[in-house]
Here is the input.
Amino acid sequence: MRSLQSLQQRFAEKLTASPHLGVVLLDQDAHLVEISQMACKVLGINRAEVMGKHIDQAFAGIPEDNRLVQRELLAGVKVHNQAISWTNSNQRYELLVDSNTLHNDEGECIGAYVLFKDITNLRSFEQKIERSDRLAMIGQIAAGTAHEIRNPLTSIKGFLQMFLKSFTESGMERERSYTEIMLTEINRINALVSEFLLLSKPRDVQYSLVDLNTVFAEILPIVESQALLHGIEVQYLAGDLPLVVGDTELLKQVFLNICKNGLEAMGKEGVLSIDHHVEADSDRISINIHDNGPGIPLYVIDKIFDPFFTTKDEGTGLGLSVCQKIVHDIGGQIRISSKGYGTTFHILLPYL
Here is the structure.
């Protein structure tokens, strides 16, 4: 009997110590009896601070409807293999959740449990395959149409530049202003075609060692000037950054695009902060770009990297798709965390 109890105890210890399984155990009064380290990591809590506390105290900072562990569990609400998205302050997780009640020999409820497995990498892999299939199709379209679009645009742009010079010399201000508008729109079409090709077609990029400190030193004046126009404060807290392998200009494009999105999300006031942390379980550095705008709904986060998906009136829907492709091509990853009171983009890059 003693050996059986010892076996059960060892099994429970192994279960709660597993880095791949989240375990939360409640008693009949909704107090936390046990919580695994992996569950603490995902839920963003400290085990020592929440053990023995009621779940309303343990998760006081999270609205009840948004909690992963809820009191309804003790009322018999069961969950089996439910896929959910969960975001703490640092990271977004894809979880597979099971929950149920526990009863004694008399059939009385004595507690409840929640088990969940982190399937973020699996989900990310599936999405990457789906996205690669879409990009392959886009590549076929782009290869056949990009030059056919650009050739007539080059001719139109050349003649418009001639008209602009003539109108300027003749003092025809209204015609000159109309011509400038047309040239601006043609440049916008050309930029769209360039993004289209970058997204869909492999590039002969010459990778080299990139000093991220230099990259941010060059782009921060641009970001700060745009922020100043909207009354937004930029806080650069990244400190000393390591070297990464990549393309300097493409990484500038990534950081500028994400910073610009943050500024646009905040509107006329707010704080855009840039910092970093080193991933404890990998050799990657995370550049974190945070805005305190309205946040991004979960249904939008699921589509935000899809080509041509945009919530902007004049957006092309290619900016973040291009950013993700650039980062993926150097072995990195972009994650998003948003809880309705701001959004953080985590750009994870292998570093030296």
Remarks:
- Residues 324 and 334 are 6 Å apart (CA to CA).
- The mean pLDDT is 80.
